[in-house]
Amino acid sequence: MNNLSHIAFDAAPIGLVLTEDRVIQAVNATFAEMSGHAAQTLVGQSFRLFYDTEAEFAQVRDIGLDALRRDGAYCDERMLRRADGSRVWCRFRARTLTPDAPLARMVLSFAPMAGAAAGPALTPRERDVLMWLARGMTSKEIAQKLHLSPRTVEDVRARLLRKFDVPNAARLLARLSRLG
Asked: Based on the structure, what is the number of domains in the chain?
């Protein structure tokens, strides 16, 4: 990368990451700051670093793979876990450089959706349910994805509504987008 390209990459106003098979190859200063990690310590690390459990890391892997194979790109909204354990709600975008094997080499971007903290602490189960709610899935669909009963998902949804003091899932998602 020439010097001007390196400056543009590092100074981009959104977090940028280059990965190979979910291992970080390069990050810009914005992503390092957003994640709370030093850039040099991230290179060579698995993206597992940003997930609480191996199961969560494995589950997220398949989200968007069909779109990446078909279109070469995918985007959604998700929480990024920082070094201190706090989270920031981000607009996530991925572009694969290898559509036949989408995870082999990718460029990822993370743009915080607001400047505020992500709100109350969430359990891994709450994060899982919230991730699928943000993708427009029903409790029944979420239950199938997570291998849970629909009643369990409904209980988690109710707990999320109480934590964020909102009457329904639409307001929950609106509140989260404002919180960042």
From this structure: 2
Answer yes or no: are the C-beta atoms of 31 and 16 closer than 8 Å: yes
Domain that holds residue 135: 124-179
Q: Is residue 158 part of a domain?
A: yes
Which has the closest alpha carbon to 66: 34, 99, 113, 38? 99
Residues 89 and 38 in one domain: yes
pTM of the prediction? Answer: 0.67
Residue 118 counted as domain residue = no
Q: What is the CATH number of the domain that holds 89?
A: 3.30.450.20
* Tens of pLDDT, residue by residue, the chain (180 residues): 578 888 889 889 999 999 999 999 999 999 999 999 999 999 999 999 998 778 778 877 877 888 899 999 988 777 788 999 887 878 899 999 999 999 999 999 999 876 444 567 778 788 888 888 888 889 999 999 899 999 999 999 999 988 888 888 888 877 776 554
Inter-residue long-range contacts of 123-126, CB under 8 Å, 24+ positions, other chains counted = 124/52, 124/53, 124/56, 125/156, 126/156, 126/159, 126/160, 126/163
